[in-house]
Inverse folding.
């Protein structure tokens, strides 16, 4: 990567400096007309940064889930092409941002994917691995032309009903969240990429999705300091590039509006009390938690800036926002935020360490190491588990169109034919009646809890009946919160594998065969049987 040269900052007009504080969204699958429109916006308004998303039907914009997401096998090439075009359109070099919490694969097809944070939360003494992941993700981003990874999530996931954080959090223990987030950010910093801890002041303890509505965290400042704010404060003291503020209402701190537009929370708490001197960036301003409450274009952007925000992410009203800020704010306030983002640009553009290509081999190696160390046993009846492994068993799975290497491996090793629930419950139930022991591999349809993780309700009820009446050893290749909807009993036996990657399935098979011990620890509290 060639070193980028910024123009002398004192040559920028005040209007150009305000433009530097805006981060509109750009999309891999945009039409040529939409790309040209963005090029013009970047050029005319001296935009400071852009954030890449997959498409206008992706989760970040398709809140109701009604638009079909079209896959693009050449997303990575398209990403690099668009970065080049947008940089060419910019009179002042752009900071390129993306959400790559588990790698570019969070937004871009056919790129290396690393485990979700909840999987890393299951690691004991796994900070070296997490550091390697942060560094590898940073390298992949830099090789694509990205400077700023808006990660990691440092929310403490202390609400099982949380529809938007869950698997994106390292867990529900504040110390673990801090130490693992620190390892991740250090890895990114070692690669030369910028980081952003999110979602301040803590999005974990809510059952509301801020894409759709405004979550309420009704806790005192003291309660927040004891838990939610802890990892933020510790990481700020260690040094981070930016903090992302979430769309959260904290009535005991400020009952007039969300944190995103709260001077008390951004300027008083984060800046003054917690001592953060770096860049403060908003969560996406198109999210319904805030966007629906400001009818006049530009007012939301101006309100967030007045509260102390430096970067206005996913603003859909750039021109109006710039004009409103110029009318309402003093030049000194504008200069403060401009200097922070300029300093961040100088840091990002001084890095020339990027190479070519994606780290596929690195990802495979690290993922295998994580799999070896995260698998978690939750055995309510170890004796019945041992009895199952020494007796004939039904090799059953719910694969949901995932490549099921685990069940095929059981068939090859033990001669028990791999059966999938998708073939029909009537046929499967005939087999169930003839077996007392079942090895059940579940690949959940979705990673998020919405609509029962995507399970068919009839299938779910049938699985519950098997668990209640048979000796079932369950291998779960997905979000551990799925266990809360399976009707588990106190004597149920579960193995949490967390991911469905090839490396994780191979290790799960080795675990069943007694060749790999379970070294992981459940990083969250579950409602089911007191775990």
């Amino acid at each position: 990567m060639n070193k980028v040269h910024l123009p002398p900052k004192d040559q920028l007009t005040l209007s150009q400096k305000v433009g530097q504080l805006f981060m509109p969204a750009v999309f891999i699958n945009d039409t040529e007309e939409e790309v040209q429109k963005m090029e013009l916006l970047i050029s005319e308004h001296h935009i400071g940064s852009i954030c890449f998303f997959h498409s206008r039907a992706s989760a970040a914009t398709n809140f109701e889930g009604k638009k079909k997401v079209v896959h693009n096998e050449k997303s990575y090439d398209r990403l690099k092409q668009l970065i080049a075009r947008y940089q060419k359109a910019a009179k002042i070099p752009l900071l390129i941002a993306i959400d790559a919490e588990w790698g570019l694969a969070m937004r871009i097809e056919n790129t290396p994917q690393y485990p979700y944070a909840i999987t890393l939360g299951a690691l004991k003494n796994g900070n070296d691995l997490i550091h390697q992941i942060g560094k590898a993700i940073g390298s992949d981003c830099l090789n694509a032309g990205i400077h700023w990874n808006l990660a990691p999530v440092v929310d403490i996931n202390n609400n099982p009903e949380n529809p938007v954080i869950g698997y994106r959090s390292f867990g529900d223990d504040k110390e673990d969240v801090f130490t693992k987030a620190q390892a991740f950010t250090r890895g990114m910093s070692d690669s030369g990429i910028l980081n952003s801890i999110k979602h301040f002041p803590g999005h974990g303890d809510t059952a509301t999705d801020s894409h759709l509505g405004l979550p309420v965290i009704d806790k005192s400042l003291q309660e927040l300091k004891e838990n939610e704010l802890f990892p933020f404060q510790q990481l700020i003291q260690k040094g981070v590039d930016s903090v992302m503020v979430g769309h959260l209402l904290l009535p005991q701190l400020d009952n007039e509006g969300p944190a995103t537009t709260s001077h008390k929370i951004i300027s008083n708490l984060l800046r003054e009390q917690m001592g953060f001197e770096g860049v403060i960036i908003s969560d996406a301003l198109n999210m319904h938690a805030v966007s629906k409450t400001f009818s006049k274009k530009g007012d939301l952007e101006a309100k967030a800036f007045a509260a102390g925000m430096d970067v206005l992410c996913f603003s859909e009203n750039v021109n109006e926002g710039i004009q409103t800020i110029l009318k309402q704010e003093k030049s000194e306030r504008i200069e403060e935020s401009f200097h922070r983002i300029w300093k961040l640009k100088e840091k990002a553009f001084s890095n020339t360490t990027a190479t070519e290509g994606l780290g596929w081999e690195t990802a495979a190696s690290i993922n295998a190491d994580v799999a070896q160390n995260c698998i978690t046993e939750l055995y309510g009846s170890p004796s019945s588990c041992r009895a199952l492994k020494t007796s004939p068993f039904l090799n059953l799975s719910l694969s949901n169109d995932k490549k099921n290497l685990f069940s095929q491996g059981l068939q090859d090793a033990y001669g028990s034919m791999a059966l999938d629930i998708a073939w029909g419950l009537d046929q499967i139930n005939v087999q169930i009646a003839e077996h007392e022991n079942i090895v059940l591999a579940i690949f959940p349809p979705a990673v998020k809890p919405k609509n029962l993780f995507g399970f068919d309700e009839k299938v779910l009820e049938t699985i519950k009946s098997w668990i209640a009446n048979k000796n079932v050893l369950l291998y779960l290749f997905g979000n551990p919160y799925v266990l809360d909807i399976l009707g588990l009993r106190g004597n149920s036996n579960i193995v949490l594998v967390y991911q469905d990657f090839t490396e994780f399935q191979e290790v799960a098979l080795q675990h069943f065969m007694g060749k790999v011990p379970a070294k992981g620890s459940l990083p969250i509290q579950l409602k089911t049987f007191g775990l």
Summary: The CA atoms of residues 96 and 120 lie 26 Å apart. The two ends are 49 Å apart (CA to CA).
